[in-house]
Write a structure and sequence with these properties.
By secondary structure, this protein is of the alpha/beta class. The protein has helices at 14-24, 66-76, 80-87, 100-113, 144-152, 196-208, 229-233, 286-293, 346-364, 377-385, 410-431, and strands at 7-10, 30-34, 57-60, 89-90, 95-98, 117-121, 132-134, 154-160, 164-166, 176-177, 189-194, 261-267, 274-277, 304-306, 310-316, 334-336.
């Protein structure tokens, strides 16, 4: 593509890839700019688009959860990235988890195959002109990070990644396969049980373990959704047993009993030779991770393929700078999508990229962009980030964002809200012709 594109998308992550594919496959000429492989953030290792840097889980598919309903909305709207995620799924009970390498490769292949998408590798030093989506993510590199701060205001928080271990190094004599409450296949999760004595030994070591050297540690704003396990443990002796190590819903088939605490391991790839420590995001020093987590019997000889790390995430002051269409209040041809916009999570990022692209399609067809209704998860998230908030923080999808319905039973209430969302998305699609 040598002529000026119809739309420029900056950033090849989840949001940027969804936006570029939505536009490109609808016939729009797109220039997709990403700094890889020229440069990578501290958390990125792959040269492909749509790299998952934290967990390989896109959370639940069950529409009685907000993440499940969000996926249903995206599938109805024709999410391109979610289509590829479904093809690269690995067993994870009721959740959608993917082989992250195959997933990135599949999205990259689809982008490369789209003749309307021009791929450019460079670092961006301005916001450019014309219709533009900025989706550079929470680890935006200089000089663009400083430009965004001046344009939109900048905030930040810290989150962490969980370690990955080799499957063959797990002591399966001290582990068992089972899905919590029997949801999904019994081989979806490998469970590592601890007795009360083993848990107390592990807990004592964890709370006294050495953390990665960082002078700003005490000043950090840690995101609840990716809280380091050692920080959570500091809230109380049983915090982990009510969190990532809860034994509820798991019965050891070897003895018919429930352990005092359980660490779950989830397959990281389709081959099943790598496992992620579920909920064990950490900022411990690498040697301390091996020592402390090795006190869990099943991990006593674990080989670490990737240690957990913590990094700083940046997001804009969205309520003061963008509207519910993810569009800049100052410049009406400029959109911000992904975690940079203040939505938190993989699928939420995909949703923001999809929404921004659909709004641009409306503009290209001579219509004012229309935000999705607030009774959809996508619309509720867009409403949240664009509504004045004196203590604005990133937000995951959750039913609390949706308008309430009059129903006392919690499950039935969610069913009603899901049905309402289905109807709203259907009507929204009927009002718009994007292809």
């Amino acid at each position: 593509m040598t002529s000026k594109p119809d739309v420029t998308v900056v950033g090849g992550g989840l949001a940027g890839s969804e936006a570029a594919l939505t536009l490109g496959e609808a016939g729009v000429k797109v220039r997709l700019i990403d700094c890889k492989p020229l440069k990578k953030s501290p958390a990125h290792v792959s040269e492909d688009y749509c790299e998952l840097v934290c967990s390989n889980s896109l959370k639940s598919n069950d529409c009685l959860t907000a993440h499940g309903l969000l996926k249903r909305e995206l599938r109805a709207l024709g999410s391109k990235v979610l289509e590829e995620a479904d093809k690269c799924a690995v067993p994870a009970g009721s959740a959608l988890a993917v082989d992250r390498t195959l997933f990135s490769e599949a999205v990259t292949k689809r982008i490369n195959a789209c003749g309307n998408i021009e791929r450019v590798c460079e670092t961006v030093s301005s916001l450019g002109d014309g219709l533009t989506i900025i989706a550079t993510g929470p680890l935006t590199l200089p000089p663009l990070d400083g430009i965004l701060e001046k344009e939109f205001g900048s905030l930040h928080f810290y989150d962490a990644e969980a370690p990955i271990v080799s499957a063959e190094s797990i002591d399966e004599a001290n582990a068992y396969f089972a899905a919590r409450y029997g949801k999904g296949n019994d081989t979806d999760y490998l469970n590592c049980p601890l007795s009360k004595e083993e848990y107390e030994t592990f807990y004592a070591a964890l709370i006294s373990a050495e953390r990665a050297d960082d002078h700003a540690l005490d000043k950090r704003e840690i995101f609840e959704g990716c809280m380091p396990v050692e920080v959570m443990a500091g809230r109380g002796k049983d915090a982990l047993r009510f969190g990532p190590m809860k034994p509820v819903g798991l019965t050891d088939p070897r003895n018919g009993k429930r352990a005092y605490a359980v660490l779950q391991l989830r397959k990281e790839n389709a081959a099943g030779d790598m496992y992620n420590l579920v909920g064990f995001q950490t900022n411990l020093k690498f040697g301390e991770q091996k020592r402390v987590f090795g006190l869990i019997p099943a991990l006593k000889n674990a080989e670490y393929l990737r240690y957990g790390v913590m990094h700083r995430n940046t997001f804009i002051d969205a309520p003061k700078s963008i509207d519910s269409c993810f569009r800049s209040l100052k410049r009406r041809d400029l959109f911000v999508a992904g975690q940079l916009s203040g939505v938190e999570g993989y699928v939420e990022s995909i949703a923001s990229g999809k929404a921004a692209a659909l709004h641009i399609l409306d503009m290209l067809r001579g219509r004012d962009p229309e935000p999705l209704p607030r009774d959809t998860v996508i619309g509720a998230l867009a409403g949240y980030i664009s509504t004045e908030n004196g203590n604005f923080q990133p937000m995951n999808a959750n039913y609390g964002l949706l308008p309430p319905v009059e129903e006392r039973d919690k499950t039935e209430r969610k069913r009603l809200m899901a049905a309402r969302s289905d109807e709203s998305v259907k009507k929204y699609i009927e009002r718009h012709i994007w292809n």
